[in-house]
Amino acid sequence: HWFSSADGFTTAVGTGATYTVTEADESHTLKAVATATDVVGGTLVSATSAAITVNDVPVITPAADQTIGVGQTAAISGIILSETGNTAGETFTVTLSDSNGGLSANQVGAGGTDTVTVTNSGTLLTIHGSLSDVNSDLATLTDTNNTAGSGNITLTATDSFNNNATSQTVTVTV
User: If you ran DSSP here, which 8-state letter would residue 27 be given?
Assistant: First the structure.
């Protein structure tokens, strides 16, 4: 919820201290004023204001629907994870599940702290790391299907603040 000047609020932070949100907008920047008063006479000790940037939830841009040959390994390119705001120090987890095929990706992130975990014979793939590392690893994604027909790759993502992206789907026709 984004607070505007009309519905700003004051919250006690500690003895004699307050935090007041005075304005917020869709750029995800809160403007706040913090004031402190002494406990004895209620005299204003100091007042300061600061802009606080708040990150949004992660967003998954799915790849276009894919058509691949039976038993062929195909690159699934175009999946991108994004988030507005400063993501330095934040980590992300993307989980991909394939209803029919086998997923694979390489750990190529430049940060060296990313992980790629394949389970259930490739039907479940998890990538974890910084935003840039996760996107680098997603760029190596492949899918192999040994059965003709149609299936889905379902994508979910979470950031280190437990914000969840809206789930996305890529349809794969074999």
Answer: T
- Sorted by sequence, the CB contacts under 8 Å of residue 42 that are 6+ apart come out as none
Question: What is residue 133's three-state secondary structure?
Answer: helix
Using CA atoms, how far apart are residues 121 and 99, in angstroms rounded to an integer?
A: 12
Amino acid at 12: A
**Structure tokens given for 91:** 């980590």
| 91 and 128 Cβ atoms separated by less than 8 Å | yes
* pTM score of the predicted model: 0.72
Query: Residue 39: what are its φ and ψ, rounded to 5°?
Result: -75, -25
- Could you tell me if 136 and 69 are in contact, meaning their C-beta atoms sit under 8 angstroms apart? no
pLDDT means over runs of 10, the chain (174 residues): 41 48 50 52 55 79 94 95 89 94 88 82 92 95 92 95 95 94
